[in-house]
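Example 399.
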Amino acid sequence: MYIQGLLADVATRLPMEERRVIVQEWSTTMPAVVAAIIRSFPQSDLAGLLPTLIELDGTLTSGAAVPASQVDDREARENRTDAARLADEVTLALGRSADRRAKEHLRVTFAETTERRDMIVRALAQTPAADDWPRLVEGLKSADPAVSRASVEALLRLETKPTDATPFRLLITAAQRLGDAGGVLAVRLHNQWAGLELPTTREQLGKSFEAQKDWFHQTFPGETLAADSAAAPAHHHWKFEEILAYVTQNNRGRNGKVLRGRKLFEQSTCIKCHRFEGTGSGIGPDLTTLGKRFKREDILTAVYFPSREINDQYKSVLIELNNGVVLTAMLAGQNKDETTLLLPDGSERKVANSEIATTQTSKTSIMPDAALNEYELDQIADLLAFLESGEEKGPQTQK
Ligand code: HEC
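Predicted structure in complex with heme C:
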Protein backbone atom coordinates (compact mmCIF):
# COMPACT_ATOMS: atom_id res chain seq x y z
CA MET A 1 0.00 0.00 0.00
CA TYR A 2 2.74 2.41 1.05
CA ILE A 3 5.08 1.46 -1.80
CA GLN A 4 2.20 1.66 -4.22
CA GLY A 5 1.38 5.19 -3.06
CA LEU A 6 5.00 6.17 -3.43
CA LEU A 7 5.21 4.73 -6.92
CA ALA A 8 2.01 6.46 -7.94
CA ASP A 9 3.39 9.72 -6.62
CA VAL A 10 6.64 9.38 -8.57
CA ALA A 11 4.85 8.21 -11.71
CA THR A 12 2.56 11.24 -11.86
CA ARG A 13 5.63 13.48 -12.02
CA LEU A 14 7.15 11.77 -15.02
CA PRO A 15 7.20 13.64 -18.34
CA MET A 16 3.90 13.41 -20.20
CA GLU A 17 5.31 11.13 -22.87
CA GLU A 18 6.53 8.56 -20.34
CA ARG A 19 3.23 8.63 -18.53
CA ARG A 20 1.48 7.98 -21.81
CA VAL A 21 3.67 4.94 -22.48
CA ILE A 22 2.91 3.50 -19.03
CA VAL A 23 -0.82 3.80 -19.68
CA GLN A 24 -0.46 2.25 -23.11
CA GLU A 25 1.34 -0.70 -21.52
CA TRP A 26 -1.04 -0.71 -18.56
CA SER A 27 -1.08 -4.46 -18.07
CA THR A 28 2.56 -4.45 -16.98
CA THR A 29 2.06 -1.94 -14.16
CA MET A 30 0.05 -1.98 -10.92
CA PRO A 31 -3.53 -0.84 -11.57
CA ALA A 32 -3.33 1.76 -8.78
CA VAL A 33 -0.32 3.38 -10.42
CA VAL A 34 -1.98 3.44 -13.83
CA ALA A 35 -5.05 4.97 -12.18
CA ALA A 36 -2.97 7.72 -10.57
CA ILE A 37 -1.34 8.54 -13.89
CA ILE A 38 -4.65 8.75 -15.70
CA ARG A 39 -5.96 11.05 -12.99
CA SER A 40 -2.92 13.29 -13.48
CA PHE A 41 -3.64 13.89 -17.17
CA PRO A 42 -5.02 17.36 -17.90
CA GLN A 43 -8.04 17.46 -20.17
CA SER A 44 -6.01 18.95 -23.01
CA ASP A 45 -3.67 15.96 -23.12
CA LEU A 46 -6.31 13.24 -22.94
CA ALA A 47 -6.89 13.14 -26.69
CA GLY A 48 -3.66 11.25 -27.39
CA LEU A 49 -4.62 8.67 -24.82
CA LEU A 50 -8.13 8.09 -26.08
CA PRO A 51 -7.77 4.84 -28.05
CA THR A 52 -5.98 3.27 -25.07
CA LEU A 53 -8.60 4.50 -22.62
CA ILE A 54 -11.45 3.17 -24.71
CA GLU A 55 -9.77 -0.19 -25.06
CA LEU A 56 -8.96 -0.25 -21.36
CA ASP A 57 -12.52 0.64 -20.40
CA GLY A 58 -13.90 -2.25 -22.44
CA THR A 59 -11.39 -4.74 -21.04
CA LEU A 60 -11.77 -3.74 -17.42
CA THR A 61 -15.53 -3.50 -17.37
CA SER A 62 -16.01 -6.92 -18.88
CA GLY A 63 -13.85 -8.32 -16.06
CA ALA A 64 -15.67 -6.32 -13.43
CA ALA A 65 -18.98 -7.90 -14.44
CA VAL A 66 -18.19 -10.99 -12.35
CA PRO A 67 -19.71 -10.39 -8.90
CA ALA A 68 -17.07 -10.23 -6.18
CA SER A 69 -18.78 -13.04 -4.28
CA GLN A 70 -18.00 -15.43 -7.10
CA VAL A 71 -14.29 -14.79 -7.03
CA ASP A 72 -13.07 -17.15 -4.33
CA ASP A 73 -9.39 -16.70 -4.54
CA ARG A 74 -8.36 -13.90 -2.21
CA GLU A 75 -5.74 -12.47 -4.49
CA ALA A 76 -8.03 -12.51 -7.48
CA ARG A 77 -10.63 -10.66 -5.47
CA GLU A 78 -8.25 -7.98 -4.31
CA ASN A 79 -6.88 -7.52 -7.79
CA ARG A 80 -10.42 -7.14 -8.96
CA THR A 81 -10.92 -4.30 -6.50
CA ASP A 82 -7.88 -2.51 -7.87
CA ALA A 83 -9.04 -3.21 -11.40
CA ALA A 84 -12.50 -1.88 -10.55
CA ARG A 85 -10.95 1.32 -9.23
CA LEU A 86 -8.87 1.67 -12.34
CA ALA A 87 -12.02 1.16 -14.39
CA ASP A 88 -13.65 4.06 -12.51
CA GLU A 89 -10.68 6.28 -13.20
CA VAL A 90 -10.76 5.41 -16.90
CA THR A 91 -14.48 6.15 -17.08
CA LEU A 92 -14.03 9.52 -15.38
CA ALA A 93 -11.18 10.41 -17.75
CA LEU A 94 -13.37 9.55 -20.74
CA GLY A 95 -16.05 11.84 -19.37
CA ARG A 96 -13.53 14.61 -18.86
CA SER A 97 -12.29 14.40 -22.41
CA ALA A 98 -13.90 16.83 -24.81
CA ASP A 99 -13.59 14.30 -27.62
CA ARG A 100 -16.74 13.00 -29.30
CA ARG A 101 -15.42 9.42 -29.46
CA ALA A 102 -15.05 9.32 -25.68
CA LYS A 103 -18.62 10.42 -25.08
CA GLU A 104 -19.95 8.06 -27.67
CA HIS A 105 -18.17 5.17 -26.03
CA LEU A 106 -19.72 6.08 -22.68
CA ARG A 107 -23.19 6.37 -24.18
CA VAL A 108 -22.96 2.96 -25.77
CA THR A 109 -21.69 1.41 -22.54
CA PHE A 110 -24.50 3.10 -20.65
CA ALA A 111 -27.06 1.57 -22.99
CA GLU A 112 -25.55 -1.89 -22.84
CA THR A 113 -24.82 -2.41 -19.16
CA THR A 114 -26.47 -1.40 -15.93
CA GLU A 115 -23.62 -2.01 -13.46
CA ARG A 116 -21.53 0.90 -14.65
CA ARG A 117 -24.30 3.45 -14.95
CA ASP A 118 -23.56 5.36 -11.77
CA MET A 119 -19.96 5.79 -12.76
CA ILE A 120 -20.86 6.83 -16.30
CA VAL A 121 -23.30 9.43 -15.01
CA ARG A 122 -20.58 10.86 -12.79
CA ALA A 123 -18.25 10.90 -15.76
CA LEU A 124 -20.74 12.62 -18.08
CA ALA A 125 -21.77 15.11 -15.41
CA GLN A 126 -18.27 16.61 -15.41
CA THR A 127 -18.85 18.30 -18.76
CA PRO A 128 -22.60 18.04 -19.34
CA ALA A 129 -23.81 17.93 -22.95
CA ALA A 130 -27.42 18.33 -24.09
CA ASP A 131 -27.19 14.93 -25.78
CA ASP A 132 -26.69 13.33 -22.39
CA TRP A 133 -29.79 14.84 -20.86
CA PRO A 134 -31.69 11.49 -20.67
CA ARG A 135 -28.72 9.78 -19.01
CA LEU A 136 -28.33 12.56 -16.48
CA VAL A 137 -32.05 12.33 -15.69
CA GLU A 138 -31.56 8.60 -15.21
CA GLY A 139 -28.78 9.44 -12.77
CA LEU A 140 -31.34 11.09 -10.47
CA LYS A 141 -32.49 7.59 -9.57
CA SER A 142 -29.15 6.54 -8.16
CA ALA A 143 -29.04 5.33 -4.56
CA ASP A 144 -25.65 6.98 -4.28
CA PRO A 145 -26.21 10.62 -3.27
CA ALA A 146 -22.95 11.68 -4.92
CA VAL A 147 -24.36 10.47 -8.22
CA SER A 148 -27.85 11.94 -7.98
CA ARG A 149 -26.33 15.19 -6.85
CA ALA A 150 -23.86 15.28 -9.72
CA SER A 151 -26.85 14.73 -12.01
CA VAL A 152 -28.74 17.67 -10.52
CA GLU A 153 -25.72 19.94 -10.85
CA ALA A 154 -25.16 18.89 -14.45
CA LEU A 155 -28.84 19.27 -15.39
CA LEU A 156 -28.82 22.78 -13.98
CA ARG A 157 -26.22 23.63 -16.59
CA LEU A 158 -28.38 22.43 -19.48
CA GLU A 159 -31.37 24.21 -20.95
CA THR A 160 -33.40 21.12 -21.88
CA LYS A 161 -36.73 20.81 -20.06
CA PRO A 162 -38.90 17.74 -19.45
CA THR A 163 -42.04 17.17 -21.47
CA ASP A 164 -43.69 14.59 -19.23
CA ALA A 165 -44.05 13.63 -15.56
CA THR A 166 -41.21 11.13 -15.23
CA PRO A 167 -38.21 13.46 -14.93
CA PHE A 168 -40.12 15.56 -12.39
CA ARG A 169 -40.98 12.48 -10.38
CA LEU A 170 -37.33 11.44 -10.31
CA LEU A 171 -36.25 14.93 -9.40
CA ILE A 172 -38.72 15.29 -6.53
CA THR A 173 -37.68 11.91 -5.13
CA ALA A 174 -34.01 12.82 -5.49
CA ALA A 175 -34.60 16.19 -3.79
CA GLN A 176 -36.00 14.48 -0.70
CA ARG A 177 -33.34 11.83 -0.67
CA LEU A 178 -30.61 14.46 -0.87
CA GLY A 179 -32.23 16.52 1.88
CA ASP A 180 -29.73 18.93 3.38
CA ALA A 181 -26.99 17.72 1.10
CA GLY A 182 -28.31 18.99 -2.21
CA GLY A 183 -32.07 19.37 -1.82
CA VAL A 184 -31.77 23.09 -2.41
CA LEU A 185 -30.11 22.47 -5.75
CA ALA A 186 -32.82 20.03 -6.72
CA VAL A 187 -35.52 22.60 -5.93
CA ARG A 188 -33.61 25.08 -8.05
CA LEU A 189 -33.66 22.65 -10.92
CA HIS A 190 -37.39 22.20 -10.46
CA ASN A 191 -37.78 25.97 -10.71
CA GLN A 192 -35.66 26.04 -13.83
CA TRP A 193 -37.62 23.23 -15.46
CA ALA A 194 -41.09 24.45 -14.60
CA GLY A 195 -40.61 28.22 -14.42
CA LEU A 196 -41.50 28.27 -10.72
CA GLU A 197 -40.17 30.32 -7.85
CA LEU A 198 -40.13 27.86 -4.98
CA PRO A 199 -37.96 29.03 -2.08
CA THR A 200 -34.37 27.84 -2.40
CA THR A 201 -33.05 28.38 1.10
CA ARG A 202 -32.31 25.52 3.41
CA GLU A 203 -34.60 26.88 6.11
CA GLN A 204 -37.54 26.59 3.76
CA LEU A 205 -36.54 23.28 2.26
CA GLY A 206 -39.36 21.35 3.95
CA LYS A 207 -41.87 23.86 2.60
CA SER A 208 -40.39 23.62 -0.89
CA PHE A 209 -40.59 19.82 -0.84
CA GLU A 210 -44.30 20.06 -0.02
CA ALA A 211 -44.78 22.65 -2.77
CA GLN A 212 -42.99 20.41 -5.26
CA LYS A 213 -45.39 17.58 -4.49
CA ASP A 214 -48.47 19.83 -4.70
CA TRP A 215 -47.29 21.22 -8.02
CA PHE A 216 -46.74 17.69 -9.33
CA HIS A 217 -50.23 16.49 -8.40
CA GLN A 218 -51.83 19.59 -9.93
CA THR A 219 -49.79 19.43 -13.11
CA PHE A 220 -50.02 15.70 -13.64
CA PRO A 221 -53.38 14.64 -12.19
CA GLY A 222 -53.56 10.88 -11.79
CA GLU A 223 -49.79 10.41 -11.67
CA THR A 224 -48.34 9.17 -8.41
CA LEU A 225 -45.25 10.14 -6.49
CA ALA A 226 -43.23 7.64 -4.51
CA ALA A 227 -41.65 10.33 -2.39
CA ASP A 228 -43.81 10.84 0.66
CA SER A 229 -41.54 10.81 3.67
CA ALA A 230 -39.13 13.67 4.14
CA ALA A 231 -35.44 13.01 3.55
CA ALA A 232 -35.29 9.24 3.43
CA PRO A 233 -32.17 7.71 4.95
CA ALA A 234 -29.38 6.43 2.77
CA HIS A 235 -29.97 3.24 0.90
CA HIS A 236 -28.34 0.33 2.69
CA HIS A 237 -27.45 -2.79 0.79
CA TRP A 238 -27.46 -4.93 3.95
CA LYS A 239 -29.99 -4.72 6.76
CA PHE A 240 -28.41 -3.98 10.11
CA GLU A 241 -29.91 -7.13 11.65
CA GLU A 242 -28.62 -9.17 8.76
CA ILE A 243 -25.03 -8.08 9.36
CA LEU A 244 -25.34 -8.35 13.12
CA ALA A 245 -26.64 -11.92 12.89
CA TYR A 246 -23.81 -12.86 10.58
CA VAL A 247 -21.01 -11.39 12.66
CA THR A 248 -22.31 -12.69 15.99
CA GLN A 249 -23.84 -16.06 15.09
CA ASN A 250 -22.26 -17.39 11.94
CA ASN A 251 -19.02 -19.26 12.44
CA ARG A 252 -17.20 -17.53 9.60
CA GLY A 253 -18.77 -14.24 10.59
CA ARG A 254 -17.57 -14.46 14.18
CA ASN A 255 -14.06 -15.31 13.07
CA GLY A 256 -13.15 -12.54 10.68
CA LYS A 257 -9.65 -12.40 9.32
CA VAL A 258 -7.73 -9.51 10.79
CA LEU A 259 -5.22 -9.21 7.96
CA ARG A 260 -7.85 -9.12 5.29
CA GLY A 261 -9.77 -6.60 7.37
CA ARG A 262 -6.68 -4.43 7.61
CA LYS A 263 -6.34 -4.46 3.84
CA LEU A 264 -9.97 -3.47 3.37
CA PHE A 265 -9.59 -0.68 5.88
CA GLU A 266 -6.48 0.63 4.18
CA GLN A 267 -8.05 0.48 0.74
CA SER A 268 -11.29 2.14 1.78
CA THR A 269 -11.98 5.73 2.65
CA CYS A 270 -11.91 4.87 6.40
CA ILE A 271 -8.21 5.59 6.56
CA LYS A 272 -8.68 9.08 5.20
CA CYS A 273 -10.54 10.02 8.37
CA HIS A 274 -9.32 7.65 11.06
CA ARG A 275 -6.01 6.74 12.62
CA PHE A 276 -5.34 3.16 13.57
CA GLU A 277 -2.15 2.13 15.35
CA GLY A 278 -0.42 5.25 14.16
CA THR A 279 -1.36 5.27 10.47
CA GLY A 280 -4.10 7.18 8.70
CA SER A 281 -5.26 10.69 9.37
CA GLY A 282 -7.10 12.25 12.23
CA ILE A 283 -10.34 13.92 11.17
CA GLY A 284 -12.41 11.33 13.01
CA PRO A 285 -11.62 9.50 16.27
CA ASP A 286 -8.56 7.28 16.55
CA LEU A 287 -9.90 3.74 16.28
CA THR A 288 -6.95 1.89 17.82
CA THR A 289 -8.66 1.20 21.15
CA LEU A 290 -12.09 0.55 19.69
CA GLY A 291 -12.03 -3.14 20.68
CA LYS A 292 -11.45 -2.21 24.31
CA ARG A 293 -14.11 0.46 24.39
CA PHE A 294 -16.93 -1.08 22.39
CA LYS A 295 -18.80 -4.34 22.01
CA ARG A 296 -19.03 -5.72 18.51
CA GLU A 297 -22.63 -4.60 18.14
CA ASP A 298 -21.73 -1.05 19.14
CA ILE A 299 -18.90 -0.87 16.63
CA LEU A 300 -21.26 -2.01 13.94
CA THR A 301 -23.84 0.55 15.07
CA ALA A 302 -21.26 3.34 14.91
CA VAL A 303 -20.34 2.39 11.36
CA TYR A 304 -23.87 1.69 10.16
CA PHE A 305 -25.57 4.69 11.80
CA PRO A 306 -22.80 7.30 11.96
CA SER A 307 -25.16 10.13 12.81
CA ARG A 308 -26.84 8.47 15.76
CA GLU A 309 -24.34 9.78 18.30
CA ILE A 310 -21.84 12.43 17.44
CA ASN A 311 -19.35 13.72 19.95
CA ASP A 312 -19.20 17.56 20.03
CA GLN A 313 -15.66 17.44 18.81
CA TYR A 314 -16.79 15.86 15.55
CA LYS A 315 -19.79 18.00 14.72
CA SER A 316 -20.08 18.81 11.07
CA VAL A 317 -21.42 21.88 9.36
CA LEU A 318 -23.63 22.64 6.42
CA ILE A 319 -22.05 25.21 4.20
CA GLU A 320 -24.15 26.86 1.58
CA LEU A 321 -22.24 28.48 -1.24
CA ASN A 322 -23.43 31.51 -3.16
CA ASN A 323 -24.21 29.34 -6.16
CA GLY A 324 -26.64 27.25 -4.10
CA VAL A 325 -24.40 24.24 -3.59
CA VAL A 326 -24.72 22.87 -0.06
CA LEU A 327 -21.84 20.89 1.42
CA THR A 328 -21.79 18.73 4.52
CA ALA A 329 -18.29 19.00 5.87
CA MET A 330 -16.05 19.39 8.88
CA LEU A 331 -14.08 22.58 9.29
CA ALA A 332 -10.40 21.89 8.99
CA GLY A 333 -9.14 25.43 9.02
CA GLN A 334 -9.94 29.00 8.18
CA ASN A 335 -7.90 32.08 7.43
CA LYS A 336 -9.00 35.51 6.31
CA ASP A 337 -9.36 34.45 2.66
CA GLU A 338 -10.45 30.86 2.61
CA THR A 339 -11.93 27.98 4.56
CA THR A 340 -10.66 24.42 4.36
CA LEU A 341 -13.34 21.78 4.44
CA LEU A 342 -13.13 18.03 4.88
CA LEU A 343 -15.72 16.33 2.76
CA PRO A 344 -17.47 12.99 3.33
CA ASP A 345 -15.25 11.22 0.81
CA GLY A 346 -12.25 12.17 2.95
CA SER A 347 -10.99 14.76 0.52
CA GLU A 348 -10.16 18.35 1.32
CA ARG A 349 -11.67 21.32 -0.41
CA LYS A 350 -10.77 24.95 -0.05
CA VAL A 351 -13.43 27.57 -0.67
CA ALA A 352 -13.02 31.31 -0.72
CA ASN A 353 -14.77 32.89 2.26
CA SER A 354 -16.48 35.26 -0.17
CA GLU A 355 -18.17 32.25 -1.82
CA ILE A 356 -19.82 31.08 1.40
CA ALA A 357 -23.39 32.23 1.90
CA THR A 358 -24.23 30.52 5.20
CA THR A 359 -22.69 28.12 7.72
CA GLN A 360 -24.79 26.03 10.08
CA THR A 361 -24.13 23.16 12.44
CA SER A 362 -25.41 19.86 11.12
CA LYS A 363 -26.97 16.84 12.78
CA THR A 364 -25.44 14.56 10.18
CA SER A 365 -22.02 12.99 10.57
CA ILE A 366 -19.66 13.47 7.69
CA MET A 367 -18.88 9.81 7.94
CA PRO A 368 -20.54 8.15 4.94
CA ASP A 369 -23.58 6.22 6.12
CA ALA A 370 -23.63 3.55 3.45
CA ALA A 371 -19.96 2.67 3.73
CA LEU A 372 -20.66 -1.04 4.12
CA ASN A 373 -22.64 -1.31 0.88
CA GLU A 374 -19.60 -2.23 -1.14
CA TYR A 375 -18.65 -5.20 1.02
CA GLU A 376 -19.73 -8.81 1.14
CA LEU A 377 -20.75 -10.12 4.57
CA ASP A 378 -17.48 -12.00 5.07
CA GLN A 379 -15.59 -8.82 4.29
CA ILE A 380 -17.59 -6.94 6.90
CA ALA A 381 -16.67 -9.69 9.37
CA ASP A 382 -13.01 -9.21 8.47
CA LEU A 383 -13.27 -5.46 8.88
CA LEU A 384 -14.82 -5.84 12.33
CA ALA A 385 -12.17 -8.36 13.38
CA PHE A 386 -9.55 -5.86 12.33
CA LEU A 387 -11.23 -2.93 14.10
CA GLU A 388 -11.24 -4.98 17.31
CA SER A 389 -7.60 -5.96 17.01
CA GLY A 390 -5.92 -2.64 17.76
CA GLU A 391 -2.99 -2.56 20.17
CA GLU A 392 -1.73 0.67 21.61
CA LYS A 393 1.99 0.81 20.97
CA GLY A 394 4.40 2.52 23.32
CA PRO A 395 6.68 5.15 21.80
CA GLN A 396 9.68 2.80 21.79
CA THR A 397 7.95 0.15 19.65
CA GLN A 398 6.67 2.65 17.16
CA LYS A 399 8.38 2.75 13.79
C1 HEC B 1 -15.21 11.49 5.98
C2 HEC B 1 -14.60 11.02 7.16
C3 HEC B 1 -14.90 9.61 7.64
C4 HEC B 1 -14.83 8.44 6.93
C5 HEC B 1 -14.54 8.26 5.46
C6 HEC B 1 -15.09 7.39 7.89
N1 HEC B 1 -15.33 7.91 9.12
FE1 HEC B 1 -15.72 6.88 10.82
N2 HEC B 1 -16.05 8.64 11.82
C7 HEC B 1 -15.84 9.90 11.30
C8 HEC B 1 -16.20 10.90 12.30
C9 HEC B 1 -16.12 12.41 12.11
C10 HEC B 1 -16.62 10.19 13.44
C11 HEC B 1 -17.12 10.78 14.76
C12 HEC B 1 -18.51 11.28 14.61
C13 HEC B 1 -19.48 10.15 14.39
O1 HEC B 1 -19.57 9.28 15.28
O2 HEC B 1 -20.12 10.12 13.35
C14 HEC B 1 -16.52 8.76 13.09
C15 HEC B 1 -16.82 7.72 13.96
C16 HEC B 1 -16.53 6.39 13.72
C17 HEC B 1 -16.65 5.32 14.71
C18 HEC B 1 -17.06 5.51 16.15
C19 HEC B 1 -15.78 5.76 16.90
C20 HEC B 1 -15.90 6.23 18.32
O3 HEC B 1 -14.85 6.21 18.99
O4 HEC B 1 -16.99 6.63 18.72
C21 HEC B 1 -16.28 4.15 14.08
C22 HEC B 1 -16.23 2.77 14.69
C23 HEC B 1 -15.93 4.50 12.71
N3 HEC B 1 -16.09 5.85 12.53
C24 HEC B 1 -15.50 3.58 11.75
C25 HEC B 1 -15.30 3.89 10.41
C26 HEC B 1 -15.04 2.91 9.36
C27 HEC B 1 -14.91 1.41 9.58
C28 HEC B 1 -14.94 3.61 8.19
C29 HEC B 1 -14.75 3.04 6.78
C30 HEC B 1 -15.76 2.13 6.33
C31 HEC B 1 -15.13 5.02 8.51
N4 HEC B 1 -15.34 5.15 9.84
C32 HEC B 1 -15.09 6.04 7.57
C33 HEC B 1 -15.38 10.20 10.03
C34 HEC B 1 -15.22 9.27 9.01
